[in-house]
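Why run this: before we spend reagent on co-expression, it is cheaper to look at a predicted model of the complex and decide which construct boundaries make sense. The entries below are exactly what would go into the expression plan.
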Amino acid sequence: MGAKLTIPQLQQKANILREDIISMLEAAGSGHTAGSLGLADIVAALYFDVLKINPSKPDWSDRDIFLLSNGHTVPVQYAAMAEAGFFPKSELKTLRKLGSRLQGHPERTKLPGLENTSGPLGSGLSQASGMAYSFQYLDDAKHRFVYVIMGDGELDEGNNWEAAMFAGKYKLSQLIAVVDRNNIQIDGNTEDVMPLEDLRGKWESFGWHVIEIDGNNMESILDAFSMARAITNRPSVIIAHTIPGKGVDFMEYDYKWHGVAPNSKQAADALKKLHTLDGKINTGDNAS
Amino acid sequence: MSEYQLNPKLYDSDVAQEPIRAGYGRGLKAAGEADKNVVALCADLTESTQTHLFAEAFPDRFIQVGIAEQNLVAVASGLAAVGKVPFAAAYAAFSPGRNWEQIKTTVALNNQPVKIVSSHAGVGVGPDGATHQMLEDIAMMRVMPNMIVVVPGDSIEAEKATLAIARNGKPSYLRLARPKTPIFSTPDSPFKIGDAYQLRDGDDVTLFGTGITTYQLLVAADILGKKGISAEVVHVPTIKPLDNARILMSARKTGRIVTAEEAQIAGGLGSAIAELMGDYMPTPILRIGINDRYGESGEPGELFDFFGLTGDKMAKKIEDFVRNKQQYHRDK
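The model came back. Tokens follow.
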């Protein structure tokens, strides 16, 4: 799998994912832009540092598992999978098209490397809990971790809290959840639609170890995952504060970009913004 | 095709009775003995779903999820994804009553071999009343692509069905009932997922039953025989995939069909057979079941009678149907 990437290299990977997200959503003509962009740093960290996976052998029996519970942000996962080599990058342009393996929401049976089918919100944490339970109690597979990303608006769904109670009861320490705390959902701000705070207190009261970070800061992200893996007596949740639309200034913080794809002019502007970030990132030996 | 071995004491007043769910308890334990990947989950109903036999034998492979049916099936989906054969048991009113979307997305569309086991289906749950009497589950589950739907007719068959779905590698639904009901099969009777069985030969009408109604149709056929009506009885324990060939063969012979189920007649066994007949040979059909209403409190026997699901009540309806409908013959 090669040497570890440096933090600047991981930041550059995140930027590549953002560019691919813009291009694939423009080609698709529909899809969820803001959440996908906001998660690019966390997903880059997972696919290019944290996860033990083998893109040429997606069903490798010792692999870690990653589930995207808020399946509408799947463009960021497809971008990462293509960049990691699970499938050719050219396929990204087929997103949401008839006959594509890249369905609008992730479908396990369509694309090797996807670990579940998701999109209807609220059940990814349950599925992840089942897997983590198996690794901890049934398989003697203490080396395998299960990572699941959830949206914050998604936490309105009661199913999540059934799962949170379950994982807390069984102290599923190989389960690491990430809440994408970007404060937006379709109808507006999460605290207006259905308040989630005290979010940290909620998870703690369910028996979880809580880590709260800036979810667009690569160093914080890597530290949080290391810390979560070191907790051995309970599940961990990383509340990751992210900026929806991160990297494209006219999309940032604007809930209207939740479920809209950029048109060609907007995509060109967005790609220009993303390219100009290159100058701000010190990529060390392989700056473009 | 060999003859189906019926319980020789079938028509005796002291015919053996046992809850269908009891067969599940034994079958699950046997499945656990045969395959260490079999795990059982339950939503706070371990004894009444008969999961306790497995839980006592294999405590390490039993997972208590509490009163949380959405989590029940989605956790089971995760377990299946990493190689387990999970049986997720609850009452039918709540699973698939409450968690249909999780079953669709995480089990059926995701194509994971989770076994959804739903006890206390139908009006037979009795005094608990309409809130707990699941009558819509056959319809809800049979419209789901990838899902196998099995409704055993007695406890002996339930045991075989449990072992069969443990091995089929597919998302599967197993419908069980609460009260003691008569046993018409024997340990030697065949059971294969997807097969229907001719229990009694006849010429004037075919009676298709599933679950507890099959025994009652055997009783009805006996009554009808005494009135000069020759009724064939076909047991359909698998609603999906339906045994099209067996059903068409029988319908073609008798030219009139009756279906009976302890469920809404909309969307259930009767609908499935009516759809098949509509496609191939539009045969006159009488569908017996719960007709677009909810159940209510009462003892199971009282409710079976009230809703016309006893052999006696059904025989009257069937006699009227046979005397008033021409037989359909394709080659006429």
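Chain B is about 35% helix and 20% strand. The longest helix of chain B spans residues 20-34. Bring this page to Monday's planning discussion.
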